[in-house]
Amino acid sequence: MVDDVSSTGAGGQEPNKDPPADEEEYVAICMAVRNQHRELPELLQHHYYHLGIRRFYLMDDNSLPPLSTRTYGIPSSAITFQYFYFADHEQEMQYHIYNHCNEHYGSRHTWIGYLDADEYLEMTGNETLVDFLHTFDRNTTDQKPIGAVGVQWRTHTSSGLEKRPPDGGCRKAFTECIIDDPTQDNRHIKSFVKTAYYAKPETPHFFALKAGAVTVGEHGDVRHDSWRTPITRDRVALHHYGVKSKEQYMEKVQRGNAMDQPKSMQWWNHIRDMNHTACPELALYEP
C-alpha cells in the first residue's frame, strides 16, 4: 500500500466551482463510442467544466453520422476524433481502441482514463482530479511503481422513468442508486492508467501493466482485478448511468457495444430489483 492521502472533505468540491483547467493535459480521457450523439454534450461539458479535463479522445466505432459532424458545447479543440469503419471492427473492439489510444496519444499525457459515455467523475473530497492523480506519482510502500488508479462505480437506476428525460440529461433525472453491496455492481472500478506503464487491457475495467507496476484504489490499496472492496468514494466517485430510462436502455441494447457483448433485459431487471438509495450529488451541477 501507499501511505493514505485521504481528503478531509465529505461533500466534495462545490458544484459550479470550476477547477483550474488542465492546460498541460496531464490527464486525458479515452472513450469507445457508437451512436451516442445525444449523450455526449452533457458528458463532455461535465468533465470539461467541473473536472478541468482538456483532452478527450472520442474513438468513434462506426457511428452514423460520424460523431465529428456534431458540436458538444465545449471547444472543438479539446476533442480528438478517430473514426473506425465497420471494416476495421475486431472481435474485442474496445481493447483495440484502448490500445490505439495509448499507442498514438499516450506520449502526450501522464495519465489516460478509460471511461464509457455513461460514466461521470465526481471529486468527492477537496482535491482536483489533477491533484488526486499527482498523489500517485510515486511507488507503493514496498517500492512497486503505481501504474493505474481504480475509481469506484456508483451505479444509478432508472429512477422509475420509462421515457427519455425531456432535455435528455441524466444527472438531474436519475438520482437513485443501488446500495453498496460488496458482492454486486458497485464493487467495480474503472482505470486511469499511467501511459508509461500501459501494457494492455485485461477487461474494460482493469489493465495489465509494465515493469511490475500495480493498480491501486483511492487509498493506495493494491488491486488485482476489476473489483474493489470495501467500497469507498472518499476522494473520487464514478457515477455510472448504465440503465437510464427504459427507452434509453432499449436503445443501448439495440446499439450493442464495442466488446460484442450487448446488454439484455436481465441486467435491467437486476438493477431494478436491488435495494436502492438516494444519490442526488450530480444533480447540483450546471452545465
Question: Can you walk me through this structure?
Answer:
The protein is 17% helix and 23% strand. Strands 1, 2, 3, 4, 5, 6, 8, 11, 12 and 13 form a 10-stranded mixed sheet that branches. Strands 7-14 form a two-stranded antiparallel sheet. Strands 9-10 form a two-stranded antiparallel ribbon. It is globular and about 50 Å long. It has helices at residues 40-51, 93-105, 129-134, 246-255, 265-273; strands spanning 27-33, 56-61, 79-84, 111-114, 119-123, 146-155, 176-178, 189-194, 198-201, 207-209, 214-216, 222-223, 236-240, 276-278. The protein is an alpha/beta fold and 287 residues long. A hairpin with a 5-residue loop joins strand 9 (198-201) and strand 10 (207-209).
Beta-strand content estimate? 15-25%
Provide the helix percentage.
10-25%
Instruction: Report the radius of gyration as a whole number of Å.
Output: 18 Å
The coarse silhouette is: globular
Mean pLDDT: 92
- Catalogue the unreliable spans: 1-13
The main sheet comes to: 10 strands, mixed
Helix count from the secondary structure assignment: 5
Number of DSSP strand runs:
14
Order of helices and strands: EHEEHEEHEEEEEEEEHHE
The end-to-end span amounts to: 37 Å
Structural class assignment: alpha/beta
Helices and strands in order:
Elements: E1 27-33, H1 40-51, E2 56-61, E3 79-84, H2 93-105, E4 111-114, E5 119-123, H3 129-134, E6 146-155, E7 176-178, E8 189-194, E9 198-201, E10 207-209, E11 214-216, E12 222-223, E13 236-240, H4 246-255, H5 265-273, E14 276-278
Parallel strand pairs: 1-2, 1-4, 2-3, 6-11, 6-13
Antiparallel strand pairs: 4-8, 5-13, 6-8, 7-14, 9-10, 11-12
